Amino acid sequence: MIDAHHHLWDLGAVDYPWLMEKGKKRFFGDPTPIQRNYTIDEHIELAGAHGFKASVHIQVGAANALEEAKWVDKIAKQNPSWPMVQVAFCDLSLDDCEHQLDELQKLSSVVGVRQIIGRSPLEDTISGTNTLLESDAFKAGLQSISDRGLSFDLQIIPELSEQCAAVFSQFQDLKVILCHAGSPYNRSTKGIAAWAEDLKHLSNLENVSCKLSGLGMFEHNWTETSVKPIAKTVINQFGPKRVMFGSNFPVDSLSSSFDDLYMRLNNIIGIKNSEDIFFQTAQRTYFSKLSIS
After folding, report:
1. Are 121 and 83 a contacting pair, CB within 8 Å?
2. Strand order in the sheet with 151-154
3. Distance of alpha carbon 70 from alpha carbon 66, whole angstroms
4. Which backbone phi and psi does 86 adopt, to 5 degrees?
5. Rounded distance between C-alpha atoms, residue 112 and residue 108, angstroms
6. DSSP E strands: which ranges in the chain?
7. Which domains does the chain have, with CATH numbers?
8. What letter would DSSP give residue 91?
């Protein structure tokens, strides 16, 4: 099995400003409990207990993206028995985008790029990242990563789905992976219905797949029952061959243990879909150049 979305950090090796900032709550809650080192050994212990044997590291807001990518690459090389690839950060809208990508592709573990477009309505208002969808430079960057054979991890809020679909439909050869089920932050009945309708804009694109990840970020007291409509909607819209599991640890450790996270989603996914969602989709998407058994 493959954990298709997790993070690692060593606060002594790489600078993460948001992890060093004390007392500031984020859209996913109070980060205080995770403002500590989270190592590959700890992740292997947690995930390996449930049969996971490989994983995908996702960039997580380092001050220097290349420094983070080099550190993750080193960790991957030091742990050959646990195949790990990474999705690194690159600002596709900058003039030196091609240089950034050249440097990242010197690292054998780099298979994709994530540049967050939407986190939450409040934080997006401050950061202005939603405007990336209107940037010609950003679109040129998407074409570049497509040409290079890299994938793009897409993190947005539901209201951006239609606009995103219009943009990403222009890059049909680009593998696009929607993070965190499209961030359904409004968990009311009306909110889930609106999210499900918005999601169709992206699920209708064959080059877009979706991660069942981050489901606890907007509902810290989540249960199997409360997230079942979300998970079932994702599976029904995308089909299991375009859905993959991601723990989003250690961020989602703020809302559940790894054991509870896995067991709840495993119960929802069921035996029929487990091979695709826990393994095959992630292997095809991220590990096409590696053999994992």
Report:
1. no
2. 2-6, 54-58, 84-88, 110-114, 151-154, 176-178, 208-212, 243-245
3. 6
4. -140, 150
5. 11
6. 2-6, 54-58, 84-88, 110-114, 151-154, 176-178, 208-212, 243-245
7. 2-286 (3.20.20.140)
8. -
Tell me the whole-structure pTM to 2 decimals: 0.96
State the Cα–Cα distance between residues 185 and 170, nearest whole angstrom: 27
CA 10 to chain centre: 19
- State the angle between helix axes of 161-168 and 189-203 in degrees (0 to 180), rounded to the nearest 10: 10
Query: pLDDT tens digits for 41-99?
Result: 999 999 999 999 999 999 999 999 999 999 999 999 999 999 999 999 999 999 999 99
Burial of 123 (0-12, 13-18, 19+ CB in 10 A): middle
Q: Which residues, including other chains, have CB under 8 Å from residue 131's CB and lie 6 or more apart? A: none
Calculate the alpha carbon distances from 254 to 43, 248, 264, 286 in Å.
15, 10, 16, 26
The answer to whether 91 touches 129, Cβ cutoff 8 Å, is no
Pairing type for strands 2-6 and 54-58 reads parallel
